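Recall that a protein's primary structure is simply its ordered list of amino acids. Everything else, from secondary elements to tertiary packing, is in principle encoded there. The following example makes that idea concrete.
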Amino acid sequence: MKRHRTSIEFPLDLWNALKSHVPPRKRSAFIIEAVKEKLIRESMKCLVLCGGPGIGMRPLTISIPKPMMPVGYKPILEHLILKFKEQGIYNFVLAIGYLGEHLIKYFGDGSALGVNIEYSLEKSALGTAGAIKNAEKKLNGTFLAVNGDILFNELDLSSLLRYHMRKGGIATIVLAKVKDASRFGLVSVDEDGRVIAFREKPRQPASGLVNAGIYVFEQAIFNYIPSGKPSSLEEEIFPTLADRGKLYAYIHDGYWVDVGAPEDYERVCKDFFEGILD
């Protein structure tokens, strides 16, 4: 079999950092793993859940879907896509339903943003899990999924994916630390990172870990989601995976906002113009 030799050019600052942190005997293996990881990320797909009616944001969402609401000079969804693109994710599937034509018209095939975009259309509301099942034919291998109405900073996707692979679960859910979990409900995690319980929304403001709406899934997730009917990740699928020890949690310490109410939208707009959200 004929062999081919290839070469990789490192920027000088990156090469100097590599030399200072990695012993010479380990550099080849380090570079090979880095290239493998980069190739995996660039071929991985990210499913964005964009089909909800955005009831909590009415009347703003009567004429546009919530992911298309502007923050600064771009829609929420464009901020999200560019966040993932910055970290090597270029392939997206948008799960659309309510006013989905707005997203198709604005994003098209994604080429204007330097990414690839496909669409998975929900003919009726399927819930967060049902939307994932509906897009099954467009998703292969390990894939990411994210709610289309969140914004974040400083989430290291490479670290998240390595954590997911190391744990070997069917799903990894990103958890965010909040001061008031009364809108979300709390998530309990054991010492090994397994999710062990989902607790109901506290009646009084309480701090804790909540579902950040960012996930890594294996193909086995489709075995747990029924076809052709609405189902919920949060209420049905995740509790089942947790009971079987197949659901892990990754803790995100950085900026995170779920734009679920007008005060959240006001906050992210303010944070953007103050440079807190980039």
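The first strand starts at residue 45 and ends at 49. The domain at 35-273 is CATH 3.90.550.10 (Spore Coat Polysaccharide Biosynthesis Protein SpsA; Chain A).
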